[in-house]
Amino acid sequence: MSDSLESLINTWIRPEIQAISSYHVPESAHLIKLDAMENPYVWEAEMQTAWLERLRGVTVNRYPDPGARAVKSALRPLMQVPENSGLILGNGSDELIQMLTLALALEGGKALLLAPEPSFVMYKMLAQVCGMKYLGVPLQAHDFTLNIEAMLSAIKTHQPALIFLAYPNNPTGNLFERSAVERIISAAPGLVVVDEAYCAFAEDTFMPALEQYPNLLVMRTLSKIGLAGLRLGLLAGHPAWLAQLEKTRLPYNINSLSQASVIFALEHYEQFLAQSAQIRSARSLVFRYLQDLPAVQAWHSQANFILFRVLDAPKTFAAIKAQGVLIKNLHGSHPLLDQCLRVTVGKPEENRAFLDALRHAL
Ligand SMILES: *Cc1c(COP(=O)(O)O)cnc(C)c1O
Q1: Strands (DSSP E) found in 265-331
Q2: Which residue's CA lies nearest to atom 12 of ligand 1?
Q3: Strand, helix or coil for residue 359
């Protein structure tokens, strides 16, 4: 890069943007992919044909329905959105996090986003990109539960505009104590978003609690149950909040192919639920196997992945990858994740390949 171009970039690109790295997705060709919490099952031929037939009717010369009304109507009953709650859709829930940070950022970066740590990395990244301050409050080191005293004290001191609680949490897999989450919602001066990306694999939800707390929003995504490629996230809550967020939403953020495909997929929702149930039972098998390995510490999960610690995570990760299985190395991403790896639960044969590779690696 020439000196003059570099100096132009330094002059005009915001320093916060220059300081961060872009979201990295590792190459996964020819590997068994257990790194990104995807549903491993592809659609059967008959369903594929019916889907393509449906897409034939989509008019791509026209803009999509800006409000994606048919998608919302299909989602409401399946996601058990309370009758009095509103719904806003995002191109993945990542985009909803972006809308929230855009709407809540104050001039001079004065508004604060607070989240426990380690948690989903996009909270911090989008806070920085959209001009909010960010504060991470460490979880308890031994079991990744909320440090409720530290959370309440940070809320009192820093008065966050926005709090994110992933329920269950990524990358730790646990569901925070419900009563602790309730205390945080009650103590928060601003919005609390309970991010239920892994709802299909968990035993609890805050969706019905929307009627109880005016400062609560509940976020879900279709990514983890089997539609990661379509990019559809939803945020439910009081219509007055959502009316403000609507102003930050790009008018046609859910494209026509996604709208038609999501509606089609939701007509087969029971299939996705059945697959989620299969993944939950596979999770128990993988967990028990990990627990029995002497050099491995694994944490209980209510999501479709398992966090575990080994003696040398970078070495174990590389050895597993060399055997054709891609998982996630979290070592170095946060002090509490020292020597930690995360594996997504896949099909039975993929899980077996992973466990064999791990055994050899150890
Ligand atoms: C994967 C994930 C998301 C983002 O999902 P989208 O694919 O953007 O809908 C949001 N929150 C958590 C906790 C996640 O793990």
Answers
A1: 297-298, 305-309, 325-326, 328-329
A2: 197
A3: helix
Q: Which overall architecture, per CATH, does domain 61-268 show?
A: 3-Layer(aba) Sandwich (3.40)
State the span(s) of the chain assigned CATH 3.90.1150.10. Answer: 3-44+270-361
Q: What is the mean pLDDT of the chain?
A: 97
Pocket test for ligand 1, best of 122, 194, 262 (most atoms within 8 A of CB): 122
The C-alpha atoms of residue 131 and residue 102 are separated, in whole angstroms, by 8
Calpha distance 300→302 (Å, rounded): 7
Taking residues 115-127, what's their average pLDDT? 97
Tell me which amino acid residue 329 is: N
Identify the architecture of domain 3-44+270-361 in CATH: Alpha-Beta Complex (3.90)
pLDDT at 156 over 90: yes
Q: Give distance in angstroms: CA of 230 to centre of ligand 1.
A: 13
Indicate whether 345 pLDDT > 90. Answer: yes
- Is the Cβ atom of 223 under 6 angstroms away from ligand 1? yes
Residue 338: per-residue pLDDT: 98
> Starting at the edge strand that comes first in sequence, how are the strands of the sheet with 297-298 ordered?
297-298, 305-309, 340-344, 328-329
Residue position matching structure tokens 């930050």: 248
